[in-house]
């Protein structure tokens, strides 16, 4: 059975079938900030084989159904459960990983920067990203997410409206973080480790790649699931 076609939006595919993110990450298809595009467009931009990717998506979906693998469908979970997952998994990951990568990118610049000029740009881009993320997480955890939880528990229209009005700004911040990650990806040539690299160099690039992967999933959960559900809730509340 072919569930997915090239006309499906990238974000919708992952929202309906979370395991699709494995394929998108492998092909570097942006499903978080670029989740509102048709698969055809995303694939064409990267000059990939559309037929092959669509077939892989459907094959993986059919295999998952066959072995009765059931990932959590965040569209069916409560908003509070979704937020709890985002904070306890993705925010916690960033709070742990960003300081470590800050030290690592500084260290490899100091040791290898003379021979690898691109490391200065990696250092600059990462520390800009780190600052953006830190401010973004604080805003979500102290201002926006509590209002969403307040709405779901008490059905407060005021709380819902406050959260809804923040969505556009949060999405713009996601876009900016996504652009910084794409620039890091490009500057490092896909996290390519040169022959003269030490173990710390190699580890830093692997952590940067891990950060990119985690962020794709993190932003997807907000841009393609949490925020659209808020829009639906607001429309229903003010109907």
Q: Uncertain runs with pLDDT below 50, 5 residues or more?
A: none
Structural class: mainly alpha
Shape: globular
Proportion of residues in helical segments: over 70%
How would you sum up the major sheet? none
- Rg measurement, Å: 19 Å
Secondary-structure element series? HHHHHHHH
- Rounded mean pLDDT is 91
- Tally of individual domains: 2
Q: Give the CA-CA distance, first to last residue.
A: 38 Å
Strand percentage lies at under 5%
Number of helices: 8
Number of strands: 0
Please tell me about this protein's structure.
- This protein is mostly helical and 239 residues long.
- It folds into 2 domains: 10-66; 79-237.
- Helices cover 75% and strands 0% of the residues.
- It has helices at residues 10-16, 20-26, 39-45, 50-66, 79-112, 118-154, 157-187, 199-237.
């Amino acid at each position: 059975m072919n569930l997915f076609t090239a006309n499906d939006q990238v974000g919708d595919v992952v929202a309906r079938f979370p395991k699709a993110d494995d394929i998108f990450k492998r092909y570097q298809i942006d499903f978080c900030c670029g989740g509102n595009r048709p698969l055809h467009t995303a694939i064409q931009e990267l000059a990939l084989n559309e037929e092959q990717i669509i077939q892989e998506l459907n094959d993986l979906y059919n295999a998952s159904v066959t072995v009765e693998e059931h990932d959590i469908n965040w569209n069916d979970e409560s908003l509070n459960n979704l937020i709890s997952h985002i904070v306890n998994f993705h925010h916690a990951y960033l709070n742990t990983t960003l300081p470590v990568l800050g030290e690592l990118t500084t260290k490899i610049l100091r040791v290898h920067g003379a021979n690898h000029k691109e490391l200065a740009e990696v250092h600059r881009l990462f520390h800009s990203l780190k600052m953006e993320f830190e401010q973004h997480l604080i805003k979500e955890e102290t201002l926006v997410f509590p209002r969403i939880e307040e709405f779901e528990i008490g059905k407060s229209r005021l709380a819902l409206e406050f959260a809804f009005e923040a969505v556009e700004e949060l999405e713009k911040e996601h876009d900016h973080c996504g652009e910084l990650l794409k620039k890091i990806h490009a500057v490092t040539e896909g996290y390519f480790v040169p022959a003269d690299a030490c173990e710390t160099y190699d580890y830093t690039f692997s952590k940067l790649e891990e950060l990119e992967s985690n962020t794709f999933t993190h932003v997807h959960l907000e841009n393609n699931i949490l925020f659209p559900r808020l829009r639906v809730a607001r429309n229903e509340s003010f109907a």
